[in-house]
Design brief:
The protein has 22 helices and 5 strands. The chain has 476 residues and is mainly alpha-helical. The termini are far apart.
Length: 476
Amino acid sequence: MSSKRIQFLGLAIAILIVASLLRFYDLGRWPFAGDETATLQEVKTLFHEEYAPPQSQTYRLPHLIPVGYILIRAGQAIAGSTEYGSRFMMALAGIVGVVAIFMLLDGLMGRPTAVATALLATLWPADIFQSQEARFYAAAALFAFLSMLVGAYAFRRKPALASSLACVLVLVGTLTHTLLLALLPLILVAIIAGFYAERHPVPKSLWWVFGIAAVIAGGLFLFYMKPLVHGWNHGSNWGYSVIHSILASIVTVGWPVSLLAAIGMVMMLSKRSAQNWYWVTCFFGWVAATVLLPLIVVYQPSYIFPFSLGAFVMAGYAIGEIYKHLQTRGKLAALAWLLLMCLSNLPSLVSYYADGDRVDYRGAVKFVQKNWVPGDRLTAFSPGLVKYYAKGCCKPIIPLPLGSKAEPALAKLTAHGGRLWILLESGRHGLPANLQEWLFAHAWHKFEIKRMRIGYDDYVLDVYLYSRRMASVTSR
């Protein structure tokens, strides 16, 4: 075995180990978030263990993208239905995706770019979060990354084979995240751009491959997906604006990666090659999706997460090219540059591991259970999480509206007396002023869960207790 081959295998194993450690570390320590408990219910609905009305999103979502839910159920079968087991397969998906980036890019863009891109993805806080969440986005990202990577091999000896495999990955990936359908035209345009860069005609076989894939995708959407997505999130008011979406995409990949991606794009465009123009097109596909999706659907940043590979390849290319230049001056300087740039998202990663980017309802419910007496009631912004961790205790559990409606709702709930536990989550800005005033006047603060973070975000959960006796004391 040649030394180059040994180095390749050694680097792949090293990336595999680091990615595994980061994605399995504290995997079961984080409590479930609201979307995760919804996912658990959706898994049961898909496997006919719980009933949900066919018109409800609880029924429609798992039937729309069954592959993601089948993977979650597989993880539960392997490692149990706990937080750890429910996230197990998503952690594996994240690991495979990172290793695939290195192994497939190495033969396309060279080792420095492959190593830099894979390390950036390995240490990417958003990827680790999705890999440690019982949702379908990590699986969707795996299919999206693989399809773009395999599509880049269309400029090699067997373009039809690479394109066919890329199309299959997109079509299967669509059953983990519907918006992955957009990858079919994106990869086709990227391949056309690559052939145009080197002034070569696009092989006729590729037109046939993508034409057949488009027919299959069209039939899949019209006859299977469209009835399930009809009216999806209709009337919701939480969707992101275009400006908010752009800023969220930058924050998701990280400001350092965004800057490096811009540098890498300029460097790629200065060298006319098929690979460069292919990945620049993928990068602009991510940008276009960021801008356009908020105008089409009720949007949140996780939707765009699987499309982000182009930005990381741009950033990895910038790091790799500068690394090669520095190598002529000294290996130590080149290695220092590579490591420092790949660690650019480290503060965000350290901040993530403080609390997993989650509010700890599990800890709050344990505190309430220890102090619960018959006749108590409980209200919370996320009653589903409370019900999951209460396991039959702490009834009744009453939903509390968000925003300005919370204070009037609490006043109504406490009008008839009795003890009321109030669980309120907030961020760095804290609770609304009117709600804080009401709590100060009528309830006692009993417990707070908050972890020290480096980043801007905070995930705070406060537990208050109202009783008529306490209210009379605080009003004096």
